[in-house]
């Protein structure tokens, strides 16, 4: 069975939305023979440029695997992954590493900040390693967007959890990547700090034109997205545009009910 999802922008003038990344007939399997487990089962999906996409599904549905494959962090068993027009599934390790560094941003549950560096140094670290100078105007805009202007000289231990994750968000944005992937980026935050970070992610899409893909289990987090993809058993089984927390929660309850009766 093929899982096929196409992108159209709802509202506005209509028409097809530009695609930042896409998967074609992607299969990801672990093991072989009787022990073979299929994490992704012939997935077709387009990720719209300049939009915020959330990926949801029950535990073991393949949502994190899909994100890791789209981001070039994991290999596929078969099928193709494209970043814009570049097929990343055929790239050698060195080229793939360069592509991830130059064109993709990452935000994870763990903030992954270096304790010996201040906020600004943590934000520019990936570019420093790559030998690239940040665009000062863009960097200032990013810092202002995430509300860190007064905290740039503070080290991680001097920042709250929400502020540390905002540093991580700014770090992902600072290099102007084509797409940012977030794996449960608010999973380690309380509800107030999580709302702050999600608000900044939303603003980065609306005000900076960023493309974001986020894996989450939280209906409230998903409600910040333009579109929610639902995975079950390694397939995309549904999608929702302009989600609300209540609508997402109801949809997840449907999955839970199906799981109990299947």
From TrEMBL:
Location of the ABC transporter domain: 21-258
PROSITE patterns documented for this protein: ABC_TRANSPORTER_1, ABC_TRANSPORTER_2
Keyword terms: ATP-binding, Nucleotide-binding, Transport
Transmembrane listed as a keyword: no
Pfam families per the UniProt record, alphabetical: ABC_tran
CDD domains: ABC_MJ0796_LolCDE_FtsE (cd03255)
GO molecular function, one term: ATP binding
Name of the featured protein: ABC transporter ATP-binding protein
